[in-house]
Amino acid sequence: MYSADRDAYRRQFVTAFQRHRAGAPLAPLERQLVAVILEHPEYHDLLADPERALGANFPVEAGQTNPFLHMAMHLTIREQVATDRPAGVAEVFRRLAARGDPLAAEHAMMECLGRVLWAAQRGNTLPDEGEYLDCLRKLL
User: Fold this and answer.
1) How far is 138 from 118, CA to CA, in rounded Å?
2) What are the sequence ranges of the domains in the chain?
3) pTM here?
């Protein structure tokens, strides 16, 4: 799913949402995308306008959240939990979700994921799984 081509990457979300709205059959990845999209109604108007969705910028400096990055981080966390990679992430999610809101658990975990990814990008290194797990455990 991940692509260096921003438009191709965004188009996957837009197309999955369009197909869902049209009642068309969805491929497995499209079902995953739609599940995240449906949990974020604040992004529906953007996704319903392909031209706007593909061309929009979301500068952090302006306090904007990139909806595509946000949804991709949900997918990343779901994949991590499903595979328990890094080891221990599934248990952290289970305990956070047991508080009553699995989506809120993912949002909390995204803070840690974002920090680790930012540090890796700035240092041109791989993400530090130990640092990630330490951050996640502090959420408990």
Assistant:
1) 19
2) 1-61, 84-140
3) 0.92
